[in-house]
Structure formats: C-alpha cells, structure tokens
C-alpha cells in the first residue's frame, strides 16, 4: 500500500502494483479502496488544507445541513490507466468548475479549482493500485461537497466538508455495452424550471429512485424523463444525458436549467462535430425520439450507452436491430480511445499523473 498521508500530489508517486481483482466482472458497485480525502471549511467559508485519511465512515452531526435539508453536491470523473502504466484524468477542471457553479446555487462555499484538482490528483495517486488495467475499466472519482455544520431552521450550514473517495468500476448498466431499454416517464419528473435540475445536487438523484425502481420491476434498464411543463420534450435519463440520431444529424436537449450539463455530453458534442456530424442542442420532442435511427446516453458513469428500445405510453420502438448503432459505436470508440490515451489528445482534455 502507498503511504501518502501528509504528502502532496507531486510527492505521492510511489510505484505500486495493480490490485488483484476480478476485472472482468467489476460492474458499477462500490469497491472500498485505501484512502479518501477530506477538507473542511474554516469560519470564513474558505477551505483549509485537506488531508488523506484511510477510507471509512465519517462523523457527521445529526443536525448537519446535508442530512436534514439535502445541502449537498457531488461530482463524478474517471482516471484511466494507459498502456505504459501511467494514469490519465479526463477533464477534471470541468468538474471543479461545475462543482463551483452548483455550490453557488446551493449557497455553499466551494474549493478553488486548484484545491479541487490537487485533491483529485492526490487521492488518485494514493489509490493508484486500484486503477484497473487498460481496457478493464477505470477508477471512478466521487468528490462530495456537503453542509456538515449543524442547523435546525432552514438555512445554509455554518460549516462544509469536501470529500473525495474512489472506486474501480466497469460498466454502469448490467447490460454492459449492449443496448439498454428505456421507458419514457409521463408522471414522474426529474426537475422543474427554477429548480435544481441543472446542478449536481444529491436530491436530484433521490427524486428519481421511485420511477427507476418501478421501471426496473417492469424489466427496463432505466427511465427517460420528459419536461414537467409540456410533458413533451426530452430531458435526461436518471444518471445520464440523451442523444437522438436522425440521418447525419445528432440532437440533444439544450441545457437550460433543468438538465445536467454533462461533461461527457459536452465532450461527445465536440467529438461528433470533429467527425463531421451536425450536432444540434435544442428542444427535442419525444416524437422525434420515436422516429430516430438511433439513440444513446452519455455520462461519466455510463460513457456512451446505446439505446436498444424506448417505450412510451405503451408503444415500443426498437433501434439498430437491437445491436449497437453505428454512430453510438463510432462515438464510444473515439471517446474511450482519447480517455485511455490511445489516440492523440488534440483538445488537451486529459491530465497525466
Ligand atoms: C456520473 O456519471 O458521474 C453520474 O453522476 C452518474 C451517477 C449518478 C452514477
């Protein structure tokens, strides 16, 4: 095990062997690793120097803002092992920026971009042996920001904790890379205009559990939500963004406050444009989805996940003979090759550790 306590990202670089796990069946469940990172805010709302601690339970005041009023945010990003054994982070600065944006909405102070990046690098290096071999998955990095101070009335907490833990992961959906089956939800909504759908607050994910549970009981992989005003336009899936392909045009719902501005979403838009596709960010109606040639989801956890079928008001539409669509496959390959350092990173998206 590395011994990285009291070290900085640049000094915690001890070589360590890759842990022996069953990498073929890793899936997306928590595998506890060696270290987590913790940093608390000071009275003036700025964050003091954080530290690595052994991964494990944390102490939290029962009256904390996060436990009582959901004052919490999370991020998700990944580290990949390259062929030469070195490690690449994918667009960590985007997560730092998004956490700061979310913190503003949730009345929380946030770590600076530099603090966020240093903490991510340090945590990954301290858990280096848990980064899967190339092609076997990635190390999922979960930064959290929470109101850890005590409150009783509804108000911002007086103290905040920034925490990062990591877990090696494989495919998010049990289908692996095989197409997923979505049901379009007409009664439950994920977000409303003026709400918090556009930031990564923890409550957004609690609110989808019921619809997701009902969908899974009926055999669907997940739920696709519609806008709550017209019940007509696509929003997103419980944990990822949605894209629709019709001929050479790829469309995705514009992020106007109710949809999470996914970093994989943004990356796929650029990758697709670079490959010659026309990509449109706009209102996309459910009818367009039903008439599409192909559909796929994007997210840090799901990467690019092809959609095999969509069911809406009892009607089921299937795509690509239930195989992986050509566009989904092309975009998946282009993105993951970049993330694993197998293709030239012309955009400067990867950060080498
Ligand atoms: C991510 O892709 O990082 C997410 O936020 C999905 C998570 C809810 C599993």
Can you tell me about this structure?
The protein has helices at about 65-70, 90-105, 115-125, 200-205, 210-215, 265-275, 285-290, 325-340, and strands at about 35-40, 50-55, 70-75, 75-80, 85-90, 140-145, 160-170, 180-185, 220-225, 235, 240-245, 250-255, 280, 295-300, 305-310, 315-320, 350. The protein is α+β, with helices and mostly antiparallel strands and about 350 residues long. A hairpin with a 2-residue loop joins β10 and β11. The longest helix has 14 residues, at about 90-105.
Condensed summary:
This protein has helices spanning 65-69, 92-105, 113-126, 202-206, 209-217, 263-274, 286-290, 326-339, and strands at residues 35-40, 51-54, 72-74, 77-81, 87-90, 138-147, 160-169, 180-185, 222-226, 234-237, 240-246, 249-253, 278-282, 294-299, 303-312, 315-318, 350-352. The protein has 353 residues and is α+β, with helices and mostly antiparallel strands. Strands 1, 2, 3, 4, 5, 6, 7 and 17 form an eight-stranded antiparallel sheet that branches. A six-stranded mixed β-barrel has the order 8-9-10-11-14-15.
């Amino acid at each position: 095990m590395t011994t990285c306590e009291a070290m900085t990202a640049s000094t915690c670089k001890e070589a360590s062997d890759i842990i022996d796990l069953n990498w073929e069946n890793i899936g997306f469940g928590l595998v506890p690793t060696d270290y987590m990172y913790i940093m608390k805010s000071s009275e003036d709302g700025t964050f003091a120097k954080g530290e690595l601690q052994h991964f494990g339970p944390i102490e939290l005041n029962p009256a904390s803002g996060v436990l009582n009023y959901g004052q919490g945010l999370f991020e998700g990003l990944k580290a990949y092992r390259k062929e030469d054994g070195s490690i690449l982070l994918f667009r960590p600065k985007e997560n730092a920026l998004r956490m700061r944006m979310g913190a503003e909405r949730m009345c929380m102070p946030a770590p600076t971009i530099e603090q966020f990046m240093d903490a991510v690098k340090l945590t990954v290096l301290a858990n280096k042996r848990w980064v899967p071999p190339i092609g076997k998955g990635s190390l999922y990095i979960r930064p959290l920001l929470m109101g850890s101070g005590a409150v009783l009335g509804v108000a911002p907490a007086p103290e905040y904790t920034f925490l990062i833990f990591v877990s090696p992961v494989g495919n998010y959906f049990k289908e692996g890379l095989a197409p997923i089956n979505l049901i379009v939800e007409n009664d439950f909504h994920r977000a409303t205009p003026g709400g918090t759908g556009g930031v990564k607050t923890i409550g957004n994910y609690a609110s989808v559990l019921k619809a997701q549970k009902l969908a899974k009981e009926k055999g669907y992989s997940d739920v696709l939500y519609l806008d709550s005003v017209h019940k007509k336009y696509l929003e997103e899936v419980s944990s990822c963004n949605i894209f629709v392909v019709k001929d050479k045009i790829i469309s995705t719902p514009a992020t106007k406050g109710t949809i999470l501005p996914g970093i994989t979403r943004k990356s796929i838009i650029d990758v697709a444009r670079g490959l010659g596709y026309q990509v449109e960010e706009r209102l996309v109606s459910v009818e367009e989805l039903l008439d599409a040639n192909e559909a796929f989801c994007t997210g840090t956890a799901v990467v690019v996940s092809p959609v095999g079928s969509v069911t809406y008001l009892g009607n089921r539409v299937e795509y690509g003979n239930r195989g992986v669509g050509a566009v989904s496959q092309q975009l998946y390959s282009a993105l993951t090759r970049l993330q694993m350092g197998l293709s030239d990173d012309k955009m400067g998206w990867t950060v080498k550790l």
